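Minutes, project check-in

Agenda point 3 was the complex the collaborators sent over. CS summarized: two entities, 515 residues total, and the question is how they sit relative to each other. Sequences were read into the notes so everyone works from the same version.
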Amino acid sequence: MAKTIEQINEKIRSGKAVVCTAEEAIDLVRSKGAEKAAEEVDVVTTGTFGAMCSSGAFLNFGHSDPPIRMCNIRVNGVEAYGGLAAVDTYVGATAVSETIKGYGGAHVIEDLLAGKRIELEAWGPGTDCYVRKNIRTSFTLDELNEAYLYNPRNTYQNYGIATNTSDRTLHTYMGKLLPRMKNATYSSAGQLSPLLNDPHLDTIGVGTRIFLGGGIGYVAWQGTQFNTQKPEKNGVPISGSRTLALIGDLKQMSNKYIRGLDIYGYGTSMAVGVGVPIPILNADIMKNCAISDEEIFANMMDYSITSSSRPAMQQYSYADLRSGSIEYEGHTIRTSPLSSYKYARAIANELKDWIEKGEFELTVPSFSLPKESGVKSLEIRE
Amino acid sequence: MDRKYKLVFNDHNLQESITYALVTKFDLEPSVLRAEIDDNGGMMIVRLRGSEESIDNSVGYLNEIGVETVLLNKHIYRDMDKCIDCGSCVSICPARAFSIDKETWDIDLNFERCIACGSCLTACPTHAVTLTI
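CS then shared the predicted structure for the full assembly.
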């Protein structure tokens, strides 16, 4: 029996919608089968909370008197983009402070959410319409006209496992990798991860309403490096493939689910909390939501190889990775997650709560994301 | 009982056979968890196993020969407001002081195991861990 999103929304409005998390969906489908579970369940909620470097916020400061066309902008000493209209800017998560070590754009965004006052310094050319050449002041999130997160690449559908075969410790975006394969790190939320529960994006598209950083956000576009061509196992890709570009009002968000990160030896990044609701329109969609860590696999790669194309060493399931150690050629490697499963679960539960209370309705996507898309590399030309 | 100490040596006492003395004079079972010593002195993290009286006496002896002793008790501080329970600290800890609760996915810290090596300080992306010694 097929359902429509409008029928589900009517149930949400009347407080009768049945919602479960992607973790709860596993046992439900195992015990009742996908057909029966799909009749009972209206929405499955997912969650993830990890480093997503391709993130940032658009801000509008409002005009000073006399006004300035800001070209060179610093917020708490972090460079913000000066190539937009006079008092618009974009603070990128990975931009780093020139004065404070380990502080970057992501920390500015976290501080804004904490209600802190941010120092602003900007310079402009001075024109007939914008005579001021420099400005030094401070602002809070409340004082901004608009502040919205726009993250060009979030919620990677699966990702590789990192290890290090060399003799020295490596400090990477996949964390600290000890010499001679003493450890391995992985980042996906696995069975709770949004795009692993709707692997071919049957329900997620442009305009899908989501949980973003503790507030309501939307899928804005396909994420950068969106790739549909990766090999699959059990119906899901075994390496980084599809991604989402997300947008949402920063003023609704919380510094619990948006955190500045300082990844030693790499730079700053931002932990972003994302939860995507999946409408259970039919049994196939329900079946996809029941995928478990035992069925999701990822390839381990050696990060001491500096080429961007690293060969896969071996495949492991997320159940293997979550056990705390894996075996490779007779060698035991300890594993660490880099994204918080505790927070991923909290996000899926919070979104479930919103839907059950009738505070969050689902949207019909404006259009689908590409069914076929590859990723090109950058050629070095003379 | 077990107690952990940080022992600080200088160039006058670094030739002393400390572990030998701890075993023969005080009937202790010392276990060197970490050592960084060169010509100018250095430090050692040592776990002493034995009676409370023997451990106290051995500390007196060490101080007499000029070795500075620092009792290690919760020598790292974890700021729970900063910690996001990601788990980056788990596999890099040589003493396995961090572990994951498989029910709640909380990251647990066992202070008894910690050897104050500081490896987690550079692994933690939110600067939630600081060394207090």
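Noted in discussion: Chain B has two domains: 2-72, 74-133.
Follow-up: revisit at the next meeting once the mutant set is ready.
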